[in-house]
Amino acid sequence: MSHHNSNGGLPSSSELPALSLSILNVEPLDEFIREVADFIHHMISQRPKDLEGSVEVEAKVGLLVDKHTGMRLQLPVLTETILAPNSIECRFESNMSAQQHKHYNKLLNRLLEESSSKIGYGHLYLKDTFYDSGGRGGEKVRVTKDEKTNSVLACTRKIRLGDLNIYSPKRPADWRISVNFEVPVPHPTGTSTHTRRKDRISYTHEEFAIDLTQVSTSNSPSQSTLSHELEIEISRPEYLVDAAYARDGSGSEEGAAYDELIRAFVNNARIMVRNADGGEGAWG
Amino acid sequence: MSHHNSNGGLPSSSELPALSLSILNVEPLDEFIREVADFIHHMISQRPKDLEGSVEVEAKVGLLVDKHTGMRLQLPVLTETILAPNSIECRFESNMSAQQHKHYNKLLNRLLEESSSKIGYGHLYLKDTFYDSGGRGGEKVRVTKDEKTNSVLACTRKIRLGDLNIYSPKRPADWRISVNFEVPVPHPTGTSTHTRRKDRISYTHEEFAIDLTQVSTSNSPSQSTLSHELEIEISRPEYLVDAAYARDGSGSEEGAAYDELIRAFVNNARIMVRNADGGEGAWG
Question: Where is the mRNA triphosphatase Cet1-like domain (chains A, B) (predicted)?
Answer without folding.
Answer: 30-234
